[in-house]
């Protein structure tokens, strides 16, 4: 019995017959390492990992846990692909468009969140292409077909989408509910709750923004909140946002599946469909400038798209794409971009939804980033051949064109931004949310409990990171009892999952992955690990996009748990492996061909 973890093994009180290992040459007991974050990096990840380990060991798989700091974890998984399995979250996955970059075989060997699993399947690629090229009801049907294939292949195991909670001072600033507080828009257009507010004070539990402000880095970025305030995209979407006090959605339709992008650094755009996909003709806003005073030009936009596809700019002979934002720009045919005057023509190999998503990348100043295309060599850090300075430098000070500009930082203590007074959102003729405070100071504190205390004591105005699940219930009571303090609940923008490395046996075997999925009781994990503050998942998309046949209804309809109430049925699970062609040795250990 594994009573200490809640994953008891049900053996029905009998000894199980173990198949002989005779004539099974070349097979050996399976031993795996599960890579994840320590509790001070992500308490939920390590707790989930322990449950996954116990589940694997219950069915004869030797499993150990490797704990890595946040930057080391992301480097190992996303850049070096050095893992067996990992447990963690997938960032900014609120709409099925992310599945293209997450699972298309084109990206199997690229760094970043583009297919870190190494999953390759040509038939699945066709489905991903279809849902990227269509729109409306046709796209919804294509997404449903893609998700049905997803549960068959189980390229990774989605576990749950955690609810996001943040503590704010409503007596210092209001309008917190207008936009999602996990996005850059959430820190714009904030009204004063008790008079004019000059400094917005945040407390952040992750120290990495005080080390690194590189918008291309995967090791130091979660969802790009702060770099999103420093750099402007051509378009934004508040689709993951909340509604305002009157119940009206701001700019878009409050998280509905058909929400669209809205002009930002772009004044407007037009979509023209053709047989290859289409062309997006973008008109840039007049007289926008980077924080160093240099103008933002169509040439900077053209450079950005070329640079994100190949940060060597063709100088190394081998394309080295950006680890971040690469999936967004994948539909852009970069060698055919035309920039003239204030207009940029972006040829798109895909439909209009894919085209608009390509507008959401940060526009980089060419005069700053062009010289960063040289190969790099970082002492003490393993980097792939051809890695450029662009993806490893800390980018401090950061020079963008966004609503806030960098002022200073002290590593592990704070990072300070100030309002960029020349930002276009501050013009009288522009009706977009802009910066309303002179300074935005982010204090670093490593724990949710102390971050809550800092806000409740009046020393900060907002916890920018979502609170850990175990403190939510206490914080609900605290907010009810403390004047001027409010707990914000926002839609989930990420999900937790188990990732497999298809580059290693037996993780490329779909039968193995599907049985592992059935060893996890997602509903029980939501209660045990997240104290009920999460939504169990069958497929990794929002409920609006989930087909009825795959909707969660008390159990996973595609990979039903082999047991009940978190307790694995040892006999049924081992039978499932043997029925799939696996075998056990005399000691009850699962054997595979390596």
Automatic annotation (TrEMBL):
GO molecular function (one): peptide transmembrane transporter activity
Entry's Gene Ontology BP terms: peptide transport
Domain Solute-binding protein family: from-to ranges: 261-588
InterPro entries, sorted: SBP_5, SBP_5_dom
Superkingdom, natural source: Archaea
Entries under Gene3D superfamilies matching the protein: Dipeptide-binding Protein, Domain 3, Periplasmic binding protein-like II
Keyword Signal found: yes
This protein's UniProt keywords: Signal, Transport
PANTHER family documented for this protein: OLIGOPEPTIDE-BINDING PROTEIN APPA (PTHR30290:SF9), PERIPLASMIC BINDING COMPONENT OF ABC TRANSPORTER (PTHR30290)
Protein family per UniProt: Belongs to the bacterial solute-binding protein 5 family.
Entry protein name: Extracellular solute-binding protein, family 5
Organism: Natronobacterium gregoryi (strain ATCC 43098 / DSM 3393 / CCM 3738 / CIP 104747 / IAM 13177 / JCM 8860 / NBRC 102187 / NCIMB 2189 / SP2)
